[in-house]
Design goal:
The protein is mainly alpha-helical. The chain folds into two domains: about 60 residues, Winged helix-like DNA-binding domain superfamily/Winged helix DNA-binding domain (Arc Repressor Mutant, subunit A, Orthogonal Bundle), CATH 1.10.10.10; about 45 residues. It is about 60% helix and about 10% strand. The protein is built from five helices and three strands. A three-stranded antiparallel sheet has the order 1-3-2. The protein is elongated. The two termini are about 20 Å apart.
């Protein structure tokens, strides 16, 4: 499991870890029952605090992506990937609706909104 963190990013390190592990689960790179590194091992390999990894793992557990068991480690839980994708898409639609509303009030053309979305998408892929 390879996680890449950026100290130059405005996204906190624990969120970078959380996002990357979620992505690995969602795209099937990590499957139900797969173990993930211990908090100490991941913290050591990333050169970050155990508390940072603990926060990321806690967020993943609360969201239902992993299960942490004392003495056994942390594992990927069974997921309904379609349900998770649908929930994520619903959040995206809500954010788009807000952006469109702000754009209309500010007299920003749809073409400019689309260009901005594409630029943001490309920037995110390059991080």
């Amino acid at each position: 499991m390879e996680i890449i963190i950026s100290n130059n990013s405005s996204t906190p390190i624990y969120e970078q870890i959380t996002t990357q592990i979620k992505s690995m689960i969602m795209n099937g790179e990590l499957k139900t029952g797969d173990s993930i590194p211990s908090m100490r091992a991941l913290a050591k390999s990333l050169h970050v605090s155990v508390i940072t990894v603990q926060r990321a793992y806690g967020d993943l557990q609360r969201a239902g992506f992993i299960e942490m068991t004392v003495g056994r480690g942390s594992y990927v839980t069974a997921q309904n990937i379609d349900r998770i994708k649908e929930e994520n898409f619903q959040q995206i639609q809500e954010l788009f609706a807000k952006a469109v509303a702000i754009g209309k009030v500010s007299d920003i053309k749809i073409e400019q909104l689309i260009k901005t979305l594409l630029r943001c998408y490309e920037e995110e892929q390059n991080e």
